């Protein structure tokens, strides 16, 4: 993954709670959410209560860095569940690229892990 080694070590030491559904309102600054889809593993470190996060993935052709978690979609629809992520749906993120707001929608979510307020050393 493309995030600092201290994150990797911390994640290896903690066991996340597996969820079929995650209430985004429950996320707090410092939480880490790992989402596995059919194609990619997304690790989101929450940086604000407004669902802003720092994203790292296991693929170079995916967005990385600062993003906003918009919610979950199903199929090619726009966000249908802005306050939840659920298995079977697709994670929707927004991010800025060269001054333009971009939207990234994942393939179907296979698993959701929530690491609540892990101290990753800064």
Summarize the structure.
The chain is mainly beta and 122 residues long.
Q: Can you give keywords for this protein?
A:
122 residues, mainly beta, two-stranded antiparallel sheet, 1 helix, globular, disordered N terminus
What is the total domain count? 1
Q: Assembly type of the shown chains? A: single chain
Strand-pairing-aware structural class: mainly beta
Count of discrete alpha- or pi-helical segments spanning 4 or more residues = 1
Distance between the termini: 18 Å
Percentage of β-strand residues: over 45%
Q: In which range does the helix fraction lie?
A: under 10%
Provide the gyration radius in Å.
13 Å
The biggest beta sheet reads: 6 strands, antiparallel, barrel
The low-pLDDT segments are: 1-5, 7-15
| Order of neighbouring strands in the sheet with most strands | 3-4-5-6-8-9
Mean pLDDT across all amino acids: 82
SSE sequence, one letter per element = HEEEEEEEEE
> Using DSSP, what is the number of strands?
9
Overall 3D shape: globular
